[in-house]
Write a structure and sequence with these properties.
335 residues; mainly beta; Beta-galactosidase, Chain A, domain 5; 2 domains; five-stranded antiparallel sheet; globular
Amino acid sequence: MQRRDFFKNAGLLAATGLTASIGTQTFAADPKEFNTVTYAGKSGKAKPEWGDQQVEHFTSYYPDFCDKYLWIRKDNQVIAAYRNCPNQKYPYIYPLAGPISRVSVTSESAQPWPHHRSVFMGADRVNGANYWQEGANRGQIFSTDLKLTKAETDTVEFTDVCVWKHPEQDPIIEDTRKYTLVWKNDDYYTLDLEFSMKMLTDVHIEKTNHGFFGVRVEQDLAPHGGGTLVSSEGVVGEKDTFGKPAKWMAFYGKRRFNPEITEGVAVLCPPKEPFENCPWFTRDYGNISPMPFLFHDEGFSWKKNDVLKGLYRIVVFAGAAQDAELDKRWDEVYA
């Protein structure tokens, strides 16, 4: 297949045209406008050939709306999008599509707690503010520097710098995050979040069940919708997984509109950083998060200039949890 490179004008990082069957595109508002850009260590004019069949591509680009959402596509179908509008509570990823159905395994928002946003990171009761739910007047996490940093045959990597701020206070946290999505094969792909949180002042998180990192899944993967919740310890359901440590937690189920397809999503828990032997917050309606804040009465405190680092992995897979060999996926990143 021939290369097809499409680029956006000044200010945005140009994506990389690829050989083989995977490419990356960056569109301008008017796709006929192209400028000299830098890509793969080279610079030059990007000239499209209209009418090309856009299939078997793995693409990532910024469209011209709502503060540079970043979209990732494969076979010209959306796999994921990083949403970072300034009116949001916090940046999040939605959708996160199943590798076969190409229908999201995560929910953008759902009852009974509609503030859960697909792939999330945030917390409540942080210096008296709320970076997890309710209105922006309680606190927000702002995206300030979204960049597409890598686009290869099977990998898209992007970074962002986010500021945690209450409207009546100075910023309290600056977090630098790197997301890496790797398409392993047509059975599964991984999404890694590596982050570093710098405390801009003394920070205290009170005991709370709101946060920290995790996913809210579509109903057909959750037990309330006929799916299954299972941990690395082989236990099933909220009752037996809640508050327990585990290497990973996963939801999977038959897809609602095509029950011949079974898909799932797992969150993998680091052995130490950012929290050692972290217990899990689990809900049969579809929420999983390795987070300690509910299980320590005294809460957590950091001094100004302290840095909290971590690396979380998500695995999106076809089949049941055992088919994804999640213990191996955990060893790949943490062993």
